[in-house]
Specification:
Layout lengths: L1 H20 L4 H11 L7 H6 L25 E5 L2 E4 L2 E4 L3 E2 L2 E6 L3 E5 L4 E5 L13
Antiparallel strand pairs: 1-2, 2-3, 4-5, 5-6, 6-7
């Protein structure tokens, strides 16, 4: 009988110790109850009147007055099947303003629209970097 009573007393004692070390959960219960209540928010009209915190960048099309003219168009980089024009990345088939990228060459790209075809070349000079691989 002593063998049965001692483990039972030990289990009860351990349970009491754990119960006294338990954090107060009532604060969490209150938080969950508060979250489940309906909250009043902004109406759609009020939301639509809010000013966006993000800056708005207006995109303008590239205006080319003559075939081959590249005013405002800068070919910054060519990397495999992508090109960087005016600090934005494009691929074959993408449009830059009214011009569509038709072909990407090693040092230039071919642009075309309904009226004109043009070749936009990388700037020559010390800033060009050629990377070759095998």
């Amino acid at each position: 009988m002593k063998n049965i009573i001692f483990p039972a007393v030990a289990i009860c004692f351990a349970t009491i110790l754990n119960a006294t070390n338990m954090p107060d959960m009532s604060a969490y219960d209150q938080m969950f109850n508060d979250l489940s209540k309906n909250r009043a928010g902004l109406s759609n009209e009020q939301i639509n009147k809010l000013k966006s915190p993000f800056p708005v960048v207006k995109q303008t099309g590239i205006v080319v007055s003559k075939p081959g003219a590249t005013v405002g168009n800068v070919l910054n980089a060519i990397l495999i099947d992508r090109v960087k024009v005016n600090e934005k990345w494009y691929k074959v088939g993408d449009y830059i303003g009214s011009y569509r990228i038709m072909e990407i060459k090693s040092k230039s790209i071919i642009l075309s629209n309904e009226e004109n075809n043009m070749e936009l070349k990388l700037n020559q000079g010390n800033q060009n970097v050629v990377i070759t691989y095998k």
